[in-house]
Specification:
Elements: H1 18-21, E1 30-38, E2 47-49, E3 51-54, E4 66-69, E5 99-104, E6 132-137, E7 140-146, H2 150-165, E8 178-181, E9 195-199, H3 200-210, E10 223-225, E11 240-243, E12 246-255, H4 273-281, E13 285-294, E14 296-299, E15 303-306
Parallel strand pairs: 9-10
Antiparallel strand pairs: 1-2, 1-10, 1-15, 3-14, 4-8, 5-6, 6-7, 9-13, 11-12, 11-15, 12-13
């Protein structure tokens, strides 16, 4: 087993999850891919896209390319660090109160609509040669900036300094915010080049167990496919699936952390759901990690098919 599988908490790869020991049987050997998401900035809202080209051994394109440091001196461009060094939902739920859109992204290939978590529609023409972000709050526009530009990243960091100055979470900053980027890799919770998937019924299963409203945004997965039984995707662990020419090796369940306590609709922190999950579901996982072993083009509506052993 690869060395990076040996540690795990808060989204890293668990080694002894109960769901691995009690995998559910698959209701079907194939599933419909219904949603594709990338989250260009760690901790902020995502962008739903229609299709994407995956590369073998890589992260999901355009996902967690940027992060906003929470005042630690060693936060720098090109350096992957643990999520504790950055603004994140687990510690700063105010991030969920921001509306985010991405009018232009260097990874766009014609299928992205530019919209973020809300109903905004991006500029179809956009601006060339940049990763642009628009931020608003409660209907008030806050900023439009090019994240590829050092000046744009400084403007974004200054905005978060100002937002957090009047927020109860400002005390969790160690110094001024700093927006950084990775040219190779992603600011995902695990450094390994993995993507995340999940079955639609699992959101319902979590909601029923916790008394919440089903909302896929709470879990920030890259790919969502249609299922009938909560958590049946755990039965795919250790197997290979095909999406057209693409091949994905399913590695492990996604262990969850306190970020899921934040309601993506209200930006309010609820109860700590991990103990509730452990008691009522027997595990604290939602979603599965996968490694891209063969690249290619995927799109909403494609079939995900389990390959024979």
């Amino acid at each position: 087993m690869p060395r990076f599988l040996q540690a795990g908490r808060c989204g890293l790869l668990p080694t002894t999850s109960p769901c691995l020991k009690n995998s559910l049987a698959l209701a079907s050997p194939s599933f419909t891919l219904s949603q594709l998401w990338r989250y260009p900035v760690k901790g902020l809202g995502g962008q739903r896209i229609g299709g994407v080209t995956l590369d073998a051994g890589a992260h999901f394109p355009g996902d967690r390319t940027y992060a906003i440091g929470s005042g630690h001196e060693n936060v720098a461009d090109g350096t992957w660090l643990k999520k504790a060094y950055f603004l994140q939902l687990m510690s700063h739920e105010v991030l969920a109160d921001l509306d985010v859109s991405f009018p232009q992204n260097k990874h766009d290939d014609g299928d992205g609509d530019g919209a973020g978590d809300g109903d905004e529609t991006g500029d179809e023409n956009g601006d060339e040669n940049g990763d642009f972000i628009e931020l608003s709050r409660h209907g008030t526009s806050l900023l439009r900036a090019n994240m590829q530009s050092p000046e744009g990243r400084r403007d974004i960091a200054a905005l978060f300094d100002a937002l957090l100055a009047d927020d109860q979470h400002a005390g969790r900053l160690r110094g001024p915010c700093k927006m950084v980027t990775l040219d190779d890799g992603a600011f995902t919770d695990t450094k390994a080049p993995l993507i995340t998937l999940g079955g639609s019924a699992s959101f319902d299963g979590f909601a029923k167990a916790t008394g919440t409203t089903p909302d896929a945004r709470r879990f920030r997965l890259n790919m969502i496919f249609e299922t009938d039984t909560p958590f049946e995707e755990f039965a795919l662990i250790g197997k290979t699936v095909a999406i057209g020419d693409v091949r994905l090796e399913i590695i492990a369940p996604v262990g969850r952390c306190a970020a899921i306590d934040v309601d993506p609709q209200t930006a309010m922190r609820g109860p700590h759901y991990l103990p509730i999950m452990a008691q009522r579901l027997g595990h604290t996982d939602l979603g599965i990690f996968a490694s891209i072993v063969q690249g290619g083009r995927i799109a909403q509506g494609d079939q995900i098919t389990l390959l024979a052993d």
